[in-house]
Amino acid sequence: MVDICQATLGAPDSLNADAYAAWLFRIKPADAAEVAQQLGVLLDADAYVATL
Predict the structure, then answer these.
(1) I need a surface site. Which of 5, 22, 26, 51 has the fewest CB within 10 A?
(2) Which domain holds residue 15?
(3) What's the number of domains the chain is made of?
């Protein structure tokens, strides 16, 4: 963990007000290449719908 949002900790209801704008923490992966590989196998919205 590289950062914690003090503003959100002080007002946790802000997560409910705008979940896409508020954040709790930032992380830095130990192996960025592995993360990039894992993200490459995630489905986009259309691919997910196709599995249903």
Answers:
(1) 51
(2) 3-51
(3) 1
Report which DSSP code applies to 3.
E
> Which segments of the chain does DSSP mark as H helices, in order?
6-10, 14-17, 32-39, 45-51
Q: Three-state DSSP class for 25?
A: strand
Would the pTM count as exceeding 0.85?
Answer: no
Once rounded to an integer, what is the mean pLDDT over residues 12-37?
88
Q: What percentage of the chain carries pLDDT values higher than 70?
A: 100
Residue type, 10: G
Distances (CA, A) of 45 to 16, 37, 39, 49, 51: 24, 19, 14, 6, 10
Judge contact between 22 and 15, C-beta under 8 A: yes
